[in-house]
Design a protein that fits this description.
The chain has 306 residues and is of the alpha/beta class. The protein has 10 helices and 8 strands. It has an 8-stranded mixed beta sheet with strand order 1-2-4-3-5-6-7-8, with helices on both faces. It is globular, with a radius of gyration of 21 Å.
Length: 306
């Protein structure tokens, strides 16, 4: 009995120590803990995490859905990652699609090459090369925010490769931002709050320890965001004059409360693209594909299965 009691006490002490270590790790690096938990859920749910070499750099991607289903590729926005589509992708897999979610160079779990421009044209070239590397001859293609700008360029440069195009709160047309673009790399909690207010209506309060970790990651990746923004803000690669040349079905999805790329930009894109349909989701902001997926999903599935 004494030996058994000692074993129980020892196991209890070990569990307590592990719990304390886990608590300290969560307090110090909560975003990392959240990410690892997300990766575990992906694995358990059958979502495959893969990587491919594109242009000499490792490009990470997720893939899910029926192996022989028609292919759709979704491109995240600035400072985004493949997991940003986690709420929307299930609507496409249920519709029978094979869904590919790449991390653009510099973001997510892809390489961060120091010699890469991170410009829209170069990212578009990487997306086209990603399709080549995986042997994806023809796909439906969607992009969100900066990703929307990127997929516009892909569709314009490779019209034979794209069946349908979906633009989610997309950048790309010539319009100077009315907000401070430096907020994309916040350095203080106040700036993070300002960014959240731009990204979503009624943002939740971020606990201090989580805000601290977000700011740490922002500082680490700021050079990539700055390089991408500097290229975009030159307005040399805007698509206003090119969009009328898109001769394929285009679904334009927009949050009515978007403050990053206001609805007026979506309306302009709709006017410029001949075969386009604009779907506005009221009460949603720039993060509509993540936060309003239950409303957007059925409309998206309807569009790609027509």
């Amino acid at each position: 009995m004494k030996i058994r009691k000692k074993i129980i006490l020892w196991l209890g002490g070990v569990l307590l120590l592990l719990a304390m270590i886990a608590g300290v790790a969560f307090w110090a690096r909560p975003i990392g803990v959240f990410s690892e938990a997300m990766y575990l859920r992906e694995c358990v749910s059958g979502i495959e995490s893969r990587a491919v070499i594109v242009g000499g750099h490792r490009m990470h991607y997720l893939v899910e859905g029926p192996v022989n289903g028609p292919v759709i590729v979704l491109i995240h926005g600035l400072s985004g990652r493949a997991e940003d589509w986690r709420n929307l992708a299930p609507y496409l897999t249920k519709a029978g699609f094979r869904v590919y979610l790449p991390d653009l160079p510099g973001f997510g779990r892809s390489d961060q090459p120091a010699d890469f421009s991170y410009s829209v044209p170069d990212q578009a070239a990487m997306v086209a090369s990603f399709l080549d590397a995986l042997g994806l001859k023809q796909v439906d293609l969607g992009g969100w925010s900066m990703g929307g700008w990127i997929v516009q360029r892909v569709a314009l440069d490779h019209p034979d490769r794209i069946r349908r195009l979906i633009l989610f709160d997309s950048a790309g047309i010539f319009e100077k931002p009315t907000w401070d673009t430096r907020l994309f790399t916040p350095t203080t909690s106040a700036e993070l709050d300002q960014l959240d207010a731009l990204l979503m209506p009624h943002p939740p309060r971020v606990p201090g320890y989580i805000a601290r970790d977000i700011l740490r990651i922002s500082k680490k990746n700021a050079w990539i965001v700055h390089r991408a923004l500097d290229n975009m803000l030159t307005a040399k690669e805007t698509t206003d004059k090119l969009l009328p040349g898109l001769k394929l079905p285009v679904l334009i999805v927009w949050g009515s409360e978007d403050k990053i790329t206001p609805l007026s930009q979506g309306e302009t894109i709709h006017q410029l693209v001949p075969y386009s349909k604009l779907e506005v989701f009221f009460g949603c902001g720039h993060l509509a594909p993540l936060q309003c997926a239950n409303d957007i999903g059925p409309k998206l599935a309807e569009f790609v299965t027509r």
